[in-house]
What does this fold into?
Amino acid sequence: MFRDPNSYRSADFESAAGTIRDKAGERLIDHFADGIADSRSKAKPNIVEEKDRFARLASDLRDYANALSVAAEENPVAMTDKMRMKPGEAMGGGPFGTHASNEALASMPAEHAFHLMLQTCKTCHARYRMGH
It folds into this structure.
């Protein structure tokens, strides 16, 4: 929807963000708490060895999805300029560009939160998923 703002539908945007939010955070952490029980899993064993780092990524994912859900609620009719990143706008985040505090999320455009969410997925899969 960021590529084609005219395709923005608040309910669809909120539903997608809500799905990610509900499957991230504690739910995702708990899913891998005891390791990889299913032999078909593509998760690497280091997901348990680095549980704190994985937990931070899972929590960040939840927070970014939540920020997108809030943006959908606050913009029920159309994708507003407030939701879009501005040219030259600074990209916040941690050393890998994947962490922003909840305070920072509250004031950043939804598009920025979306990019942080995608980077978090990429970072997590690269580190904890086989085949990446």
Summary: Helices lie at 10-23, 25-31, 46-49, 51-74, 102-107, 110-128. The chain is about 55% helix and 0% strand. The chain has a mean pLDDT of 90. Residues 98 and 120 are 5 Å apart (CA to CA).
